Amino acid sequence: MATRNTSVRRAPATDRAPVQGAVERVYQALRARILDNAWPPGHQALEQELALEMGVSRTPVREALIRLHNEGLVEVVPRHGMRVLPVSPVDMAEIYAILTSLESLAAELAAKRKPGAAALAPLEAACREMEAALAADDLDAWAKADERFHLQLVSLCDNRRLAEVVINFWDRAHRARMVTLRMRPRPTHSTREHRAVVKAIRAGDAAKARDLHRAHRERGAVELTEILKQFRLSSL
Q1: What is the rounded CA–CA span in Å between residue 157 and residue 162?
Q2: How far is CA 106 from CA 17, 142, 201, 212, in A?
Q3: Can you give the pLDDT at residue 43?
Q4: Which of 14, 53, 61, 164 is 20 to 30 A from 39 (CA-CA)?
């Protein structure tokens, strides 16, 4: 008599692709809300509510929340979905210390490569956009151009792992930057400092590019600390 095959059939890897696509879509949408402060610290949402809003099952929502939890952006609360976590001044000090060190290294490495005009064009364009945004008194446009400058800088160093770490922590700092954007003085210093860093990179002066960028980042960290003290912000 023929025996029945009782082994469990494994789902093809391709069966998982739609689920992973949904997870990524939900993850990116929720992450954007947190980083752009559409969801302030303390905001809570249930898994089922998010699943209905996103048009997915609870599984992609749960997996997306786990990723956000691992990044320190939310707390997953049993039977209550999730809660957005605040960023403390201590968190920001640690994040800025990392960004200052690694971005300065990125500027140094970029200068050592002596990039040509084509490679430097995105940095130049970001500087022009920052200047135009300041002239138009458009701080949101300035912030976007500033972000492009920093992301282009780390990509120019040609060190993928360094760039990945910087981008991760840059995203974490984004929320605090957007909250304090209109509390700080007009960022005319930042725009000039960016121009100076580009000039040093173009000249292939690695030490100068590193030191200029470090000074730029350190000044920004002090400025943010003063804002937190002035407005008595215990969290962001």
Answers
A1: 9
A2: 35, 22, 10, 12
A3: 92
A4: 164
Taking the complete model, does pTM exceed 0.70, yes or no?
Answer: yes
Task: Write out the H or E segment, with its range, that includes residue 27.
Answer: helix 17-35
* Alpha-helical runs (H) found in 75-203: 89-113, 117-135, 139-156, 160-180, 188-202
3-state DSSP assignment of residue 220? helix
For residue 142, the number of C-alpha atoms closer than 13 Å in the C-beta half-sphere is 20
CA distance 187 to 234: 23
Averaged pLDDT, groups of 10, the chain, 236 residues long: 43 58 94 87 92 94 93 85 86 90 97 96 96 94 94 94 90 80 87 96 98 95 82 66
CB 163 within 8 A of CB 106: yes
CA dist., res. 117 & res. 69, Å (int): 41
Q: What residue has token string 């430097």? A: 120
**Two tokens, residue 158:** 């040609």
In whole angstroms, give the CA distance from residue 144 to residue 131.
12
Q: Give the whole-angstrom CA distance, residue 7 versus residue 62.
A: 29
Is residue 147 within 8 Å of 126, Cβ to Cβ?
Answer: no
